[in-house]
Write a structure and sequence with these properties.
- This protein is α+β, with helices and mostly antiparallel strands.
- The protein is 56% helix and 13% strand.
- A two-stranded antiparallel sheet has the order 1-2. It has a two-stranded antiparallel ribbon with strand order 3-4.
- The model has no long low-confidence stretch (mean pLDDT 93).
Length: 210
Amino acid sequence: MVEVPETLPARMYLLAYDLRKKRMTTRGARLGYVLRAAALTELFLDGRLEERRGRPVPGTPGADPYGVRAQIADSRPRPWHHWVRRDARSAVRTVRDELERGGWIRVRGRRVLGLFPAEEITVRDPRVVKDLWGGASSALRGRPVAHVNSYDAAAVALAAAGELRSVLPGSERRRHRRRIAELTARSGPAAPAMRRVIRAQRAAMASAGS
């Protein structure tokens, strides 16, 4: 049996990797939103975050590997989408470094056109990504939603909201819209909040370009 990372953000980072093209399919702020939403979802599923009046609040004490629960505890109540956006880019570095330390990925610096610094990410064991993708695929097409593993259900919800083409191309999102909605309902408020963040960002970019 293939071992996979324990945390949902680490799993989503690996799911954003395209094994065929050997590169990340999502980067920057968009990937950061996915990872922040994954951290919020993990805490919500485990009861370490709860929802009150449409806002996350601390729940039962427990592990807080990315410090998200502590941020929420130290702040006045704010909506979910605020916490999806907050520190999104630094979340990418945090999860990437975690995976590199754990031996899941290799990170190499390179220069595009010999001038611009960039990173080359390589997954050390492709079976890990295949196993994660298999879990998400099974959640999308398999047993009744109530019996799906909670992290597999969340992976589908987050991949759909974050438009991760490596997991769910647009055609698949449209074909399985009802199933995705059911899995999203199981996974809590963070994925829908991320979807709103991404749509708002896209609308702002379109407005700026017009």
